[in-house]
Design goal:
about 325 residues, alpha/beta, six-stranded parallel sheet, four-stranded antiparallel sheet, 11 helices, about 20% strand
Length: about 325
């Protein structure tokens, strides 16, 4: 059952009242301390007042209409049995605003992106891509044996790749998961870090451990790591191996050299899948050393069954400030 539009006053200063039949879902829609409503108010420059099971929206006609559509979209999500988190609200508002920027006039219908649900089931939780680019990326991971995810930090490239890997592993589609990163020094020398080689390398691999901990119970993860059914290793350790029946992720691929990238890509074995993720704006290679990720884009983008998926600041699912920071740097790069 959808919320009903009780009253609407067509004017430059509009007042719309939405009625929501399920008070429990309305609480989730508003968020803790009405945080979701506050985000909508700030972005769309409207005021939202809650009275019982109704939300009154006041503001300019265009902003009120967008707020109404956003609230209806989020409520429909809750009715479908899915949660609404702050990142979902922020993502919806960013994508909705991008529609306005492309020339939608006052009074035109603005399509808020609901899209078909794409979900990844892991041992600990169900993971859902939040933007259209993320949905397309996840679909390509299931459809292609070799996929690239390229874009700025915070867009879920690695997180979603690992989630799909865990889903395929627990579903019996692959026998093991192998996660790798180039151990490129970024201001701190490996040799100066305490401990043996594993102790020195593990800090570089920590984001991969963090993702796995989100998807697998601690004891099960520890056992799988001990049995080498899940491996986390620097890119250099991949040389000479043939990776069969495995789900393989190369993270931070912008820091792989051309030779390292070629070496990694040619490890692909029978029954395996590979995912390469990277951010072209965060290259830590020495000056003058070309990035293997850029070369791979140039050389492989016309080969069938290899997918390239791109993200922008609109796909950032971290704190909203992260998207603003990325946009500021992108604007500066375009001007220089």
């Amino acid at each position: 059952m959808s919320p009903t539009d009780a009253t609407t006053t067509p004017a430059d200063a509009a007042r719309t009242v939405l009625e929501f039949p399920d008070n429990r879902l309305l609480i989730d829609l508003c968020g803790a301390y009405d945080a979701h409503l506050a985000a909508i108010e700030k972005v769309l420059e409207v005021q939202i007042v809650r009275r019982g099971n109704q939300l009154a929206i006041m503001g300019e006609a265009e902003g009120a209409m967008q707020a109404e559509q956003a609230l209806n979209t989020l409520y429909a999500r809750l009715e479908g049995g899915r949660s609404v988190e702050q990142a979902d609200v922020d993502s919806l508002l960013r994508m909705g605003n991008s529609e306005v920027d492309t020339g939608v006039q006052d009074g035109d219908q603005i399509e808020m992106p609901i899209g078909q649900a794409v979900e990844i089931q892991t041992r600990k939780k169900r993971v859902e891509p939040r933007t259209e680019a993320q949905k397309a990326y996840v679909q390509s991971l299931f459809d292609n044996e070799l996929a690239f995810g390229i874009g700025p930090a915070g867009t879920g490239k690695t997180y979603l790749a690992v989630a799909v890997g865990v889903s395929m592993f627990i579903g019996g589609h692959v026998d093991r998961i192998i996660l790798s990163r180039p151990a490129v020094e970024a201001g701190e020398k490996l040799g100066y870090l305490p401990g043996d080689m594993k102790d020195k390398v593990d800090p570089y691999m920590q984001p991969l451990y963090d993702a796995l901990n989100d998807f697998l119970p601690g004891k099960q993860l520890a056992k799988l790591l001990e049995e080498k059914r899940i491996e986390i290793a620097p890119l250099a350790f991949m040389r000479g191996r043939t990776l069969a029946n495995a789900y393989v992720v190369l993270d931070e691929a912008q820091n792989a050299t051309t030779m390292q990238m070629k070496m990694f890509l040619t490890r692909l074995g029978e029954g395996s899948r590979m995912v390469i993720t990277g951010d072209r704006t965060q290259i830590d290679l020495p000056r003058g050393v070309p990035s293997g990720l850029a070369d791979a884009e140039r050389l492989l983008n016309r080969i069938p069954k290899i997918s390239f998926n791109y993200f922008t600041s609109k796909d950032v699912v971290r704190h909203p400030l992260v998207a603003a920071i990325i946009e500021a740097y992108e604007a500066d790069t375009r001007q220089s």
